[in-house]
Amino acid sequence: MDHALNKVIELRESGFQFLHLRDDAGQLDRIMAFKQRRGFIDSILFWSETEARAGRLPAVRDSARPAQAVWIYEGPLVEAVDRLLDLPEPGARNAPTLMKATASDLAVVTTLPFKLKLPPGAIA
Fold it and tell me: What would the DSSP string read from start to end of 54-121?
């Protein structure tokens, strides 16, 4: 548990924000961390040390279609955090850019209790 907790702290120190998502009974169900980066949102959703899903999604998307990620990973929390933090900066050489996987549970824009608003032409 200490190693997983250290990884969560590493996310926070890297500028990720956190949401505690609750089930219908009000119990903590999962935790989401997200960070906006140059037109993309890196996010991770985790239920336990052994179950996490991380991805990079465009910050702006068509809300009529399911969210699609340019990169996605499912596995243990520690591995997911390492892979997410190792992703090249958006726009850098070798950074993922092609839409490939549906990632509706990582779509921070539809999960947040507020909307991310950017001025026209802004780069997140």
Answer: EEEEESS--TTS--EESEEEEE-HHHHHHHHHHSPPTTSTT---S--EE-GGG-HHHHSSS-----TT
> Is it the case that residue 109 has pLDDT exceeding 70?
no
- Backbone CA torsion sign across 109, 119, 100, 47: negative
Could you say which DSSP state residue 37 is in? E
In which order are the strands placed within the sheet that holds 40-48? Answer: 17-22, 28-37, 40-48, 51-58, 71-75
For residues 29 and 69, is the Cβ–Cβ distance under 8 A?
Answer: no
Q: Taking the model in full, what pTM does it have? A: 0.75
Q: Is 105:53 a contact under the CB 8 Å cutoff?
A: yes
Q: Which helix (H) or strand (E) holds 2?
A: helix 2-13
